[in-house]
Amino acid sequence: MSSVDELQKVIDDSHRIVFFGGAGVSTESGIPDFRSVDGLYNQKYDYPPETILSHTFFVKKTEEFYRFYRDKMLCLDKKPNKAHYKLAELEKAGKLSAVVTQNIDGLHQAAGSKRVYELHGSVLRNYCMKCGKAYTAEFIKESNGIPKCECSGIIKPDVVLYEEGLDDKTVNGAVNAIANADTLIIAGTSLTVYPAAGMVRYFKGNKLVLINRDATPMDSAADLVFHEKVGELLDKIKVNI
Question: Which residue numbers belong to the known binding site for NAD(+)?
Fold first, then answer.
């Protein structure tokens, strides 16, 4: 297993780091992931989470979608953890050029990160499907049944549901950032969710670092591999300008 000193040297020698993160980045903030033993996929509902969080289910059973969504997806009381703050610090120091995230919680921005590509959208943004008016996550959380706009249109979270495509502008920005990175740090993801996981192939830089609790399909291709919590590891890194 790789050492913190090795990671420190990689970061010291890098100037265009891109951080590619998954659910494991936010679990230290108390937000459940999907696939771990205690994740959402292992809790009991009338339908599997994959079904509930699909475009078809949203359209056909909107009220039931929102019952699950308010209960499990709107973690509005959660705060950024050590990983989020360290990444913001690295960006401010000119070491990190972008964060690419599969998370929808907005915690990277809350910690101070400026350039964040949210592949799967954000629970913090919501819009009326009829007139386009924007609504806050708090409005959704406090609403009952199906949240409606003042124009009577149904409000939809700006998150990418199953069966929906990723936003082209976000994808292009993320791909360009990864393609121009000298170091790519992949953390808190099993690298099994596509098309997001496929973006890693655009990396042509010097060092590939993997940080994940469990082994991933790309461990053998990485320069450094850590099987530990993301925040605890990054907290040991000093930001040297």
Answer: 23, 27, 34-35, 102, 104-105, 120, 189-190, 212, 230
Residue 102 belongs to domain with CATH number: 3.40.50.1220
Is a pLDDT exceeding 60 seen at residue 126?
yes
Tell how far CA 173 is from the center of its chain. 15
Contact 167, 89 (CB under 8 A): no
Please indicate, yes or no, if residue 5 is contained in any of the structural domains.
Answer: yes
The answer to whether 120 is a known catalytic residue is: yes
**Residue positions in the annotated binding site?**
23, 27, 34-35, 102, 104-105, 120, 128, 131, 149, 151, 189-190, 212, 230
Q: Tell me how many domains the chain contains.
A: 1
Q: Which domain holds residue 26?
A: 1-30+80-120+165-241
pTM above threshold 0.90: yes
